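Re: glycine structure - here you go.
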Amino acid sequence: MLSTETYTQRRLQLKEAMGSGLILFLGHDESPMNYLDNPYPFRQDTSFLYYFGIDSPGLAGLIDVDGDAVSLFGDDATLDEIVWTGPQRTLAEQGARVGVAECHPLSKLEEIVGEGTDSGRIVHFLPPSRAEIILKTEKLLRIPSSDVAQCASKELIRAVVEQRVVKSDEEIAEIEKALSIAADMHTLAMRMSRPGMKEQEIVGAIDGLVSSQGSALAFPIIFSKHGEVLHNHKHVNTLEEGDLVILDAGANSLTHYASDITRTFPIGLPFDDRQQQIYETVLEAQMDAIEAVAPETRFEDIHLLACRRLTEGLQKMGLMKGDVEASVEAGAHALFFPHGLGHMMGLDVHDMEGLSEDLVGYGDEAERNPQFGRRSLRLARALKPGFVVTIEPGLYFIPDLIDQWREAGQHSDFIAYENLDAWKDFGGVRIEDDVLVTEDGYRVLGEPIPKAIEDVEMLTTT
Ligand code: GLY
Ligand code: MN
Ligand code: MN
């Protein structure tokens, strides 16, 4: 938990940004795997966590913008429950830790919200990510569940996004704690991955390391010699000498701030010639993109810079051809780089995308380009000091995509299909770091995690 003052200030700032009405935050409940006593690990609703900080189920928060009041709703554990869970803090104790004095049993929520709606007050709420919260909202606000998402308050979404998108020093320190765990995860994987091992052995060891630090994964681990499958969550392959693997993995700090790091490394041998060429191209694109991070620079322009660098590298390898600008404009590089350069990061690894990917990443100043590749760019807007973004270019050889494009003759002015056959089994390379936008540029967050070829090989081959 952060300081009491932090949560008080956050609520105050939000209240000031909103005109009037009530603001309702429904915290998450336990989520059953199959029956309620066998739940998934608890994960609090992120916006509830941001404004109310309490990391336990069954709570709600209400901010009365006009009446200058904040209240918390929840039920104290009964003795029957304590027999199973051990002693629990009372709601009043939890409220005091986050600066809320007015605490009520959950049954009061319906009454107080009902009084508000009956007297014509607006009840602002955020779009819920979970079905049970949609149903609760339906019951509380008498909105059909199918309409809940579209009835979420646009004014509140905008205010929350603009507040959460700028990270304080306290938040940056949390992200750096998460990055310190990520550094351990990645160096362990590089040291441990050897020919003959199964991917799942490495994944299990990384997962164990995270648990042993009292932490949790920020998202499911991507670890695969089939790096061309962008979000590959299967870990069934056996590693063989000369394979190239992608590890995209991060952890949460104890207050749930995320880290999101990708490294790519060879198994049992140094990078071979082809691997080295692709890797160096991605690394140069990544470093140039990081170098371009600065206030007022549009992230879409940094994405396009990375696309140009990747295209230039592929041209040197004889895999692409033609005018680089025209090629990027046409979207030809998306055969090899079909995703965006990065996204916001914070309490969620793709920060606030549950509220609105477009508002977070595009705001009012940019429109999503529908072109293949460009449409997967989650972040385009101009950067501001305090934003934390990922920079994660990659190059992939996706056999189905190559075959389909070649058959259709797609971008044949820019793609040297005749040279691609030899590369179809290559897999992929991605390199990702987390970067803070500062007043005068950028800072790559966390301690450095090896990414220069010689530094990676030091860990993978000795
Ligand atoms: N870890 C998923 C991503 O990099 O966006
Ligand atoms: Mn990632
Ligand atoms: Mn990422």
